[in-house]
User: What shape does this take?
Amino acid sequence: MGRGRVELKRIENKINRQVTFSKRRNGLLKKAYELSVLCDAEVALIIFSSRGKLYEFGSAGISKTIERYQRCCFNPQDNSIERETQSWYQEVTKLKSKYESLQRTQRNLLGEDLGPLSVKELQNLEKQLEGALAMARQRKTQIMVEQMEELRKRERELGDINKQLKMKLETERLNLKAIQDLWGSSAAAAGTTNFPLHPSHESTINCEPEPTLQIGYQHYVPAEGSSGPKTMVGETNFIQGWVL
Assistant: This one.
């Protein structure tokens, strides 16, 4: 006959309860061990008896499994922060390694720390330097050509400006010459014009003073050596002896 179905309930008999606990505990521990070995699983088993006695099994250690369980179940946010922190730490490590490599390469390009380099590495370094030198010379030549083109363009612009200024000066000079010629012709035309003159204008202007009449008495003192008094009527038109 097959084994009947056992009803699951608390065993009232202490002896039977203790025997059942021991058997099933050992079987459970055995199953946990087999599961960890056969399936490569991380298994942790904790059992407390009715008397408070602890029985445990951990394929990777009880503490480690409990910490993992807490990270996965109880603190998902902390777990995310930890993963992000770990990712940043790895990134910083990579960047630090790359930075050190670039510094070492820079020192090698400057001719420093060449002792640890092998012949192949020195050849590669030489090729890099030759390529960098060729690129630098090419860039320098390009800049010089561009500067020459710019100077030539500026020279042409200045030449055009100079031509314009010369043309403007020549135009101003021609205009000034035309004005001067016009003034000269006008002056010459004014000098050769024959205007009729008044008959009184034909003779020379007489600048001798006309006779004047002086009223009043003026004492005349004759000069030394003179023979006698002279009249001043003919010379000064002065009539002696008259008083107003």
